[in-house]
Specification:
alpha/beta; 15% strand; single chain; 308 residues; Rossmann fold; 13 helices
Length: 308
């Protein structure tokens, strides 16, 4: 079934129809919603220039012929292109804030949002956070949200991709944070000589090669630069562990999301005292290490290094 459907009149009609199309096509959901109905609602309301919290009482409102054609076309694009809905709308929410999204960046979805909303407490005193580094920043959602929730913090957004940094810069401007948030092009810490931070937060590429090849099409629509972590998923993570101590303040903390590569990381560094964070809203694979812990295990990190 393609093209504009017959017999659909209301907003709710199109949400129901969209969900049915998505389920029929076997789409994957994991970029902001986890089910067909919520994703259909997101796209229908976007096409109609309505907010996500549009009151349910008005969902029986009838659409004009032009509106019906616009909504149907967007629903069919989601089915045909198999890309995350955020790439069709150009927006995504993270930590209660809305961010611009393009195909140059991953769709924001990290469990770190919950930690940011809490000001990184209880793992770090929010009042002691002066400088924050968002490493492998992509859209900048983590660092920008950190600046929003920590009004005294200075934040650097670092990424190697010029396209991603352009999106991050647009998001800095969108949230009017140019006075406290800086965008830096760098391969990890390469352009940060002499810079130290109270808190380094990173959601680096961590998907192993075999896992990457088996991902649903929606993930393959995202930039591989933001996903591919080498054969075992830990190429950049090992380098972050090795270099981070030189860029942390004396009482600094490193927080890194490694997702599905968590077990591999523990196997490689069995003596490192990773603290694995838990999240009330779900998600896992995020560890915390203090600067002192990183220094104590520096020999093992240096020996591992960045693999060819």
């Amino acid at each position: 079934m393609t093209g504009q459907p017959e017999g659909l009149i209301s907003i709710q009609d199109f949400i129901r129809w969209g969900a049915s199309r998505f389920n029929q096509a076997g789409l994957f959901f994991g970029h902001g919603s986890d089910n067909a109905l919520d994703e259909a609602a997101e796209l229908v309301l976007f096409a109609l220039h309505l907010p996500a919290d549009f009151p349910g009482a008005y969902r029986d409102c009838r659409l004009t012929p032009d509106e019906r054609a616009t909504v149907a076309a967007l629903i069919e694009r989601r089915v045909r292109e198999r890309c995350p809905a955020a790439y069709l709308t150009g927006r995504a929410r993270f930590a209660g804030l809305e961010f611009l999204v393009t195909e140059d960046v991953l769709v924001p979805r990290s469990p770190l949002a919950e930690l940011v909303e809490d000001g990184f407490a209880p793992w770090f005193d929010p009042e002691r956070v002066g400088r924050v580094l968002d490493l492998c920043a992509g859209s900048g959602c983590i660092g920008i949200a950190a600046a929003a929730y920590l009004p005294d913090a200075q934040v650097d957004l670092v990424d190697v991709s010029p396209g991603a940094l352009a999106v991050a810069a647009a998001n800095v401007a969108r949230h009017d944070l140019a006075d406290r948030v800086r965008v830096v092009e760098s391969d990890l810490f390469a352009a940060l000589a002499g810079q130290r931070y109270d808190l380094i937060v990173s959601n680096p590429p961590y998907v192993a090669a075999e896992e990457l090849a088996a991902l649903p099409a929606e993930y393959r629509a995202e930039p591989s630069l933001g996903l591919a972590g080498g054969d075992d998923g830990l190429d950049l993570v090992r380098e972050i562990l090795r270099q981070a101590p030189a860029h942390l303040a004396p009482d600094g903390v490193l927080i890194v999301e490694v997702g599905s590569s968590a077990d591999t990381l523990v196997e490689q560094f069995p003596d490192v005292p990773f603290t694995w964070l838990e999240f009330a809203r779900g998600g896992d694979g995020v560890f915390l290490l203090t600067r002192e812990q990183l220094l104590a295990d520096a020999p093992s990190f240096v020996a591992a290094g960045r693999r060819p």
